[in-house]
Amino acid sequence: MPSILERDTLNAFVRETHAELPGASGGPLAGLSFGAKDIYAVAGHRVTFGNPVWLTTHGAASETAAAVARLVAAGATMTGKTHTAELTYSLSGENLHYGMPANPAAPGRDCGGSSSGSASATAGGLVDFALGSDTGGSVRLPASFCGLYGVRPSHGRVPLDGACPLAPSFDTAGWFARDPRLLEAVGRVLLEDAAPARACTRLLRAEDAFALAGAEVGAALAPALARVESLLGAAQPVTVATEGLLDWGGNVFRVIQGWEAWQSLGGWIREHRPTLGPGVKE
Fold first, then answer.
1. Rounded to whole angstroms, how far apart are CA atoms 184 and 66?
2. What is the CA 278 to chain-centroid distance, rounded?
3. Neighbours of 117 (CB within 10 A)
4. Which among 38, 6, 52 has a CA at the least distance from the CA of 118?
């Protein structure tokens, strides 16, 4: 059978630091395949982090990232490492150095990022599911663009040991699947040692978020909201940001994210002066 790189017509997988890991012989994910965003370490291999200078200035990993190791131990086979937007600092999926993976759900359109290759590979059927990461939408947005199920879990619920950091107080692991049952099965593996969630005592409905999303989105979400209300009781209307969600995101999240990104990457950038693509450079 041709290798994943030979079958990859989507530019979803990294060629420069290809790695494969066979899954355990048994387990809840036995027989399934996955790709891992090229921010996750695999023992004996390097990481591109979406930038060729990062690849050449960092050695091979001594240990495999915890999230990848959990999936392999559960029986899933990692077929390769998937492209990421440069330094994971983009939502479009474009990458000056490695190009943009194709969007199988909407040919000719952006696939979204930064977990671009993981979304592309899953949507195109090259793997059963894929591991990504989400700092400010990097799983949720490509899942939307590529017609997939994707999840950003609560911060800290899935270990990021062995993953390249961008903004650590926002960084999370995340994953994609074409089927909600598989999305759940992967979650049961990745969340295996997470502390039990506290029982919900009330349900809040973010009125400003629904208003910003618009009537059409609100109507599409109404059945899901009704289902949750049937389990938890009527939702209490609240306003998340009295100053406005857009101002909150731009003036709070972006500032903190940018500051943390510079703490994570500024020293390396000063030392090596890498070429950075549009958007990421600014």
1. 19
2. 21
3. 36
4. 38
Tokens read off for 112: 């979204």
Q: Give 10-residue mean pLDDT values along the chain (282 residues).
A: 93 97 97 98 98 98 98 98 97 95 97 98 98 97 98 95 97 98 97 76 94 96 95 94 84 91 98 95 90
pTM for the complete prediction? 0.92
CA distances from 190 to 65, 167, 184, 209 (A): 12, 21, 10, 29
How big is the chain by its Cα radius of gyration, in Å? Answer: 19
DSSP code at position 227? H
Measure the CA–CA gap between 31 and 80, rounded to whole angstroms.
Answer: 15
User: What was the pLDDT predicted at 198?
Assistant: 75
Q: Which two tokens stand for residue 66?
A: 């915890």
The residues annotated with a catalytic role in the active site are 37, 114, 138
Question: What gap in Å lies between CA 235 and CA 107, rounded to an integer?
Answer: 39
